[in-house]
Amino acid sequence: MKILNTIIAAKAYVRQSKLNGLSIGFVPTMGALHPGHISLIERAKLENNLVGCSIFVNPIQFNNKEDLEKYPRNFEDDSMKLVNAGCDFVFHPETDEMYPEPANEQYDFGRLDKVMEGAHRPGHFNGVAIVVRKLFEIVEPEKAYFGMKDYQQLRIIQTLTENLKLPIEIIPCPTVRENDGLAMSSRNVRLSRDERKIAPQIYQILKEVKKRKTNHGVKELEEWAISQFSEIEGFRMEYFEIVDSKTLLPIKNWSDTRCAIACTAVFLGGVRLIDNLILFK
Length: 281
Fold this sequence. Notes:
Helices cover 40% and strands 20% of the residues. By secondary structure, the protein is of the alpha/beta class.
């Protein structure tokens, strides 16, 4: 596996690959790789001649400095996982390489980045958009792969690609879960043993919401889910919303949309966990 630390080196590698007629599949990450990330590499490997991954902890998408400092970093371990998965190259720049000067770009996503995660993490998605655009310009992939656990991020990146008319196909990939249903996340390692036992109930509540949708209204189900979280010691609710899965705007009635998704963010101890479940599409 080729390790590329500079933009110049990455662009040279990409240029030569393109001259050789090779297509590139790309998986952007912040490292701390888990089987969910590896599933994206494996999917990309099936659909492209070359597979690349980026490992870069993007400081401008963190609202909380402490969260940035605590984000796990282990490039040696991540590299071994990528090699075992058959990844062809990894782009692993330092912060100064990506941001030699302050990043001042501003993107307009309408309401898409103002709700849910955007409401609680102002500026987060602008930071995501800045780094993803930079990575796309460096790697020039034909296809890029993103997990659906970060569903709002996926919609932002799809919209960014459409608005800028980038010649890249965004491939959504299903959330990969532990055997007990907990969505795989780099943050899970920060859960205590007791918290880890509680965490799978996030998915259990989401599944029950989907099961109940036939006989219950939107508002009633949202209130039920919030009450369920409040009854479980350890959880602190940030939001639970049922929204249109394209616009991410709240719905009042099932007839308001053709595609709905339930999204939630909760704190368990000091760890913030997000998850979602498509209710119908």
